[in-house]
Design brief:
alpha/beta, eight-stranded parallel beta barrel, two-stranded antiparallel sheet
């Protein structure tokens, strides 16, 4: 069982940003992630910093905690340039980086470069090219590839990652094609639950939906002869019914985490509190959960 956090990149590094990452390490979180967006939802008109530079600074400031994106997507990334940044980030962190990666959506990132938002089918098609190509770029010294959406011509990535054969992928997916990518290329799988249940569903319905997702992940692994237990199962909280309940109290967290660990979830990720936002929460409760939550479950 692992407990991690996600720190949204909304604070200047020298005005509380650095302190947030240092405190996460002090609290003992397994991993501290950040979102990889150009802007996001209600934070669009406020401060929002880049994920890779933020993680690079966090890697230099911390020494033990793992770091990562939750998640990167093809919306504004290309595998060739992303691979170079990831290899550098993995080097600066001395092998503490996990790449959370997903197909992207219809948010602000989808059109910020001037393109039309892709359809769900187009996103799935691009993701199906993006992940295998990125896998090759992070494991081979030189890659040439010509695809429908992405190409690489003698792309060099020497010396490669500190982590071998490459840094781990945590693939966010719920559909059949994405689950197949997670089964083949992932070291972990990420879910936020069933988005259709967020506003009108119940916690019990959400648990059953996640149970179904894990079952389908297992089937995707069976199809290629892989043991599903090889993949970590990561639940990013805040998007299931009653999202604020997880951080209401230590007891609420223990109840929530216990039910999801029983499903096979191996890592739960909590948003670091941000006042006056969808992620507002009592900081003292958050820190109590970080320090005592897992012990209550063992």
């Amino acid at each position: 069982m692992r407990l991690s956090t996600v720190i949204l990149p909304v604070r200047r590094w020298h005005d509380g940003g650095r302190d947030e990452w240092l405190r996460a390490e002090e609290l003992g979180f397994h991993t501290a992630y950040t979102y990889d967006h150009l802007s996001w939802r209600t934070f669009r008109d406020g401060p929002w910093f880049g994920a890779v530079p933020t993680l690079t600074a966090a890697a230099a400031a911390t020494s033990r905690m793992r770091l990562g994106t939750l998640v990167t997507s093809p919306n504004f990334r290309h595998p060739v340039t992303l691979a170079k940044e990831l290899i550098t980030l993995d080097d600066v962190s001395n092998g503490r980086i996990t790449l959370g990666i997903g197909a992207g959506g219809n948010g602000f990132d989808a059109t910020a470069l001037g393109q039309q938002a892709w359809t769900p089918r187009e996103r799935a098609d691009r993701f199906a090219e993006f992940v295998p190509l990125l896998d090759r770029l992070l494991t081979e010294d030189a890659v040439t590839f010509e695809g429908t959406a992405y190409s690489a011509v003698e792309a060099r990535n020497i010396p490669g990652c500190v982590q071998r054969p490459r840094l781990p992928f945590a693939v966010a997916a719920t559909g059949p094609r994405g689950l197949r990518l997670a089964a083949r290329h992932g070291q972990a799988w990420v879910t936020t639950g069933d988005p259709k249940l967020f506003e009108t569903g119940t916690p019990d319905q959400s648990v059953e939906a996640i149970r179904g997702q894990i079952k389908k992940l297992g089937e995707a692994c069976d199809d290629i002869g892989r043991d599903v237990d090889e993949l970590d199962k990561i639940l990013l909280t805040g998007f299931t019914p009653e999202p604020g309940r997880v951080l209401e109290s230590l007891d609420s967290f223990v109840d929530f985490a216990g039910r999801h660990f029983e499903l096979g979830v191996t890592e739960i990720v909590l948003h670091a509190p941000i006042p006056d936002s969808a992620f507002a929460a009592d900081r003292e409760v958050f820190e109590q959960i970080a320090m005592e939550g897992l012990a209550q479950l063992r």
